[in-house]
Amino acid sequence: MRTQVAIAGAGPAGLLLSHLLRLRGIDSVVLESRDRAYVERRQRAGMLEQGTVDVLRGSGVGERLDREGLTHHGLELRFGGAGHRIPLSELTGGRTVTIYAQTEIVKDLIAARPAAGGEIHFETEVLSVDPSAPSVTYRRDGRVETLECDVIAGCDGFHGVCRPAVPDTRLHEREFPFAWLGILADVPPSTDELIYAYSERGFALHSLRSPKISRLYLQVDPAEDVAAWPDERIWSELRARFATDDGWELRDGPILEKSITPMRSFVAEPMRHDRLFLAGDAAHIVPPTGAKGLNLAISDVIVLAEALGAWYDSGTTELLDAYSDTCLRRVWRAEHFSYWMTTLLHKDPRQDAFGHRLQLSHLEYVAASKAAATTLAENYVGAAPTL
Ligand code: FAD
Ligand code: DHB
Questions:
Q1: Is 80 exposed, middle or buried (0-12, 13-18, 19+ CB in 10 A)?
Q2: Contact 48/95 with Cβ under 8 angstroms?
Q3: Which residue's alpha carbon is at the smallest distance from atom 2 of ligand 1?
Q4: What residue's CA is closest to ligand 2, atom 1?
Q5: Which of 148, 188, 314, 340 is 20–30 Å from 72 (CA)?
Q6: Which residues contact 268 (CB under 8 A, 6 or more apart)?
């Protein structure tokens, strides 16, 4: 088999890259180790920056997003028994964010493939890649075969095989002493805007998926077993962490799904070796507090699609040569913001009394100062395109 661009991984990065390339008349083949149902159901992110929405809409996969996505103009920071609204749009010249689940983006991108010739191969595991004589070796139906190509896009996530094929990478990593227990619940959200809550018991986040479905997260110990969290324990802990002095109430309901995600910061530099280009979680991970993981994966492949388009059109390698540096500028901004939001809002079990007072002072500052709130808002809605 031969194609122009071989793409490892059918997450949001691989699927959107394939879609953007097809719009430019460039062929690609996506190889995905899991089956289609698994990829379409895997619960993950849900908050889209405006730039992400603009690209999905502009590339023809925004129809359901426009119908079902929920536009948000602000968020709430909650601590000390009170809420403090951050008016995102007001502080960023009218920019907004949109709630639309990653599962739905993945479904829309898979559905957008032409019925015939849509080259996504599920249950096909990439075994190795050769960045210099570009090709991908994969296993399907028990047979090992090779896909020849011009370029390989490593969109195979944090545990994929592409990153190790970049020699001499510089790895930057930080583990956090907490994880997130995430739930999807069959209950109307108790809030119109997202609530990021700091409490002495730990962090909690109230998000949503639709007017009928809530998505909530709780800070837990990374060694925690999800089996130790029956539904009633989750709701009672959420109620305690979101409690306010004015009697705000959290509606509860049947929990449809629960899972625990460890939190880490991670960057591999550079994001390219020869004909292999890494994108998304294959190259970098952010702790989810800033809601940047999915948005970064999407911004990487926008840069890559444009660079490959210029190369196929005119032979210029200028944008491809700049790919890693261009992406890493935005990646490091998001790494800093995500780290900052995480340390601002989580209860660190290693913290001393001095650190605790600093954290409370910082929370009060962000809630009270327009300058501090503007910094949060600018980063939350998405870094400026020039970054
Ligand atoms: P992925 O979505 O990981 O896709 C990679 C794909 O490659 C997968 O489909 C995988 O099956 C496939 N693959 C791996 N190895 C191979 C191989 N050898 N051969 C073929 N295919 C392979 N971000 C937020 O902003 N908010 C959140 O709440 C949030 N929650 C998360 C929860 C979890 C459990 C995880 C893991 C991530 C979460 N994220 C969150 C981050 C966000 O979902 C990711 O940043 C986003 O999925 C990155 O997209 P991607 O396409 O780069 O990688
Ligand atoms: C969601 C996830 C996040 O990490 C976040 O910061 C905001 C929203 C979500 O899944 O809806």
A1: middle
A2: no
A3: 11
A4: 46
A5: 340
A6: 163, 166, 169, 170, 171, 172, 278, 283, 284
- Determine whether 196 is an active site residue: yes
Q: How far is the CA of 78 from the centre of ligand 2 (A)?
A: 16
CA of 263 to the centre of ligand 1 (A): 13
Which one, of 71, 258, 87, lies nearest residue 180 by Cα? 258
Q: How many CB atoms lie within 10 A of CB 90?
A: 16
Q: Please report the pLDDT score of residue 386 as a whole number.
A: 44
Paired tokens of 139: 């296993």
Q: Give pTM, 2 decimals.
A: 0.96
pLDDT digit string, tens, across residues 135-186: 999 999 999 999 999 999 999 999 999 999 999 999 999 999 999 999 999 9
The β-bridge partners of 276 are 152, 273
Of the candidates 72, 258, 273, 284, the residue annotated as catalytic is 72
CA distance 372 to 349: 26
H or E, element range at 184 = strand 170-185
pLDDT of residue 113: 83
Q: Which two tokens stand for residue 287?
A: 């702790």
Helices (H) and strands (E) in the chain, counts: 11, 20
Classify the C-alpha dihedral 280-286-288-292 as positive or negative.
negative
Q: Which of 234, 207, 178, 221 is nearest to 43 (CA)?
A: 207
Closest CA to 331 of 285, 369, 264: 285
CA-to-CA distance for 18 and 144, rounded, in angstroms? 23
pLDDT tens figures, 236-293: 999 999 999 998 999 999 999 999 999 999 999 999 999 999 999 999 999 999 999 9
Give the sign of the dihedral formed by CA 55, CA 56, CA 61, CA 63.
negative
Q: How far apart (Å, rounded) are the C-alpha atoms in residues 382 and 16?
A: 19
Catalytic residue among 100, 196, 217, 323: 196
Question: In angstroms, what is the span from residue 157 Cα to ligand 1's centroid?
Answer: 5
